[in-house]
Design a protein that fits this description.
Shape: globular
Distance between the termini: 53 Å
Oligomer: single chain
Largest sheet: 2 strands, antiparallel
Radius of gyration: 17 Å
Structural class: mainly alpha
Number of helices: 7
Length: 144
């Protein structure tokens, strides 16, 4: 099944994939693309920080506009010279916020999904770093 195909829910329940398979896959993609842990956590904190404002459907409707600025912020971060936020992250944010804006349940599911990605990111980032370090070591020639 393709990423987010069918949304966050299946038969009225949160999909396992948002916590495990899709979260691991997205963490790996972001790590391999060069996303930094600090940048990922910064965006997650912005989204998680909105959760108390979305206590029910009425409050969600009154406050969902606060999700809109995150899309241009992701775009800006992607285009910065330092390059710590890859284009795949901007695509991730755009797609997930599109779903999150539909209703409060989707917003909460997005927060849960993003939290899972952050949790798996350290593992994915370490695997990517080990792989890069191993490749660098293989390229070195040692002299006695």
């Amino acid at each position: 099944m393709a990423y987010l195909e069918g949304g966050y829910y299946k038969n009225g329940k949160l999909r396992r994939e948002i916590y495990i398979e899709w979260a691991k896959e997205q963490a790996k993609i972001l790590a391999e693309a060069g996303m930094t842990r600090a940048a990922l956590r910064r965006f997650y904190a912005q989204i998680k920080g909105l959760q108390p404002l979305m206590k029910d459907e009425k409050a969600f409707e009154e406050n969902k506009h606060k999700l809109y600025p995150i899309i241009p912020l992701a775009n800006y971060a992607t285009n910065k010279k330092e390059g710590k936020v890859p284009i795949v992250f901007k695509n991730f944010i755009e797609r997930n916020i599109e779903l999150a804006l539909e209703n409060r349940d989707n917003f909460i599911a997005f927060v849960e999904h993003f939290q899972s990605i952050v949790a798996y990111f350290k593992e994915a980032d370490q695997k990517d770093s080990r792989s890069k370090n191993q490749k660098a070591m293989n390229k070195k020639t040692f002299h006695k």
